[in-house]
Model the fold of this input.
Amino acid sequence: MISKRYRPAVIAGLTMAVLSGPLLAYPANAATGTPAPTVKAADAAPHKADRKTAATFARIAEDVLSRRTQALVQGRGGSEDGTAKTRMSARLKKDEDAALRSLRSRKSRLAALGEAYTDADTRVRAERATITGRTATVRVTASSTLTYKKVRGDEPDTTAFSTRQELTFAATGNGWELTSVTSRDNGPVAVDEPPTARVKTVKDDGKQYPNGTPASTAYPTRPTPRKTGGAYDYSAMARYTEKYWRTYNAAYRQFNGAGGDCTNFVSQALKAGGWKSVPGTSSDYRNWWYDGGRQSASWVGVNEWAWFTLSNRRAPNLTNVYQLDVGDVLQVDFDRNGSKDHSMMVTYRDRRGMPYLTYHSTDTYRRSLASIIASYPNARYFAYRT
Done:
């Protein structure tokens, strides 16, 4: 316990509305030609881009986002690979060059931990393309897969992830110029995204909460022993998580538009593995439940879940993150401000002891712990033995 605890507001509400109309899908690796737009006075009002223009935007997004993913692949991503075909503003080109340098550094940090990728594939789907005068705003979803190099032989075949981006364009005499690429996800950066500064303001309510003990991120000289026994079905937890990481279970509400779905997803998996509900008022973190129309704060809130599990002794803290095994939970305080930001579940562990995490909010399948730490080396980590 600590004398004061930063307590974020309880997550409430539903996910953002699904965009109406069919999604527009485009093939990978298409040419990125940008036909010069013709803008009339009547076009000043926002309107949906025609299919040909929307296809152009999708190809541009795929070109830029594919280069980020390729920067992580062994033998690729050198400086000669960093010049995209896409026409960009000078400021964005500078930012993208910096992003690629950051990703190449991440690749080096991963190599030092014995991890590498041999191939990458990124497919982009345009959700909405709106033109207003001589500017355009385009929302896309990128689905990416990285193939693990078989260093030890029992690594997973791949890691996969979906990211949501918003791109802005400006019309020029030579065609559409890309001016910005902004993530719409509220989870950790994806494997192929550069780190971003987080600004999160939380208020101190003066109350006491079980804080937990941060775990060391020092890599052990030998694999830590696997957990044995336990009252729960950890394989069921992993199967559930890997089944619904990208296609959400319709039996549960989503919270991507209301603070993030990560802890909601972890709670679902824990329930699938045998965790029992604790009834009571929804605001009391000592209770944990979901009834279809409502849920406890601890079911969906990152901090509230930690307070519940520590106060009820459901899952004690581990001293080192590499002790994590299948069915265990990892939480991260990215900016070390005393408020936890994200929850993930281990769904695979190789014989060297490397945990692989699957999670919602930046929907991701079997991302290695090494990759998380390489992206956030200065974060504070909390590991839980479920």
Remarks:
- The chain has a mean pLDDT of 85.
